[in-house]
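Sequence decides. Consider this:

===
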Amino acid sequence: MTEILDFTTFVLEPKTARIGSGKNIEEVDVSLFPAEATLYLMETLNRKRKVWTAEHPDATEGPKPGEIELSPNDLVEIVARACRVTNPKITAEWLRSNCSFPQLSKFCAWMMRQAEEQVNGQANEDTTESTEKNR
């Protein structure tokens, strides 16, 4: 008998966010921080780490927390890539043009927390539930 591993059970329940202003309000499912956006985030941090290493050739340890940071434009691009999966209208340019700075800052911070939780596996309750569904 063939064993089937069903990884679709690890998909979280949809969670919708509304962003934008005026007539330019869009909805996006923010329950999943997609792999494409996560890989882009990792790639961006890796590039910054390489620059740091080149600037600190005598360092015996890697960068300390806070020595490598994402720029606001990096954050907006990463968040746009995450949103684009469920709403292709959302681009970095769209976010910069249709959100206030406080709105964009809060949304980006919230999305990055989502990414961190998913990458670090801190969404254990949902994963445990999904695993039980697989049995």
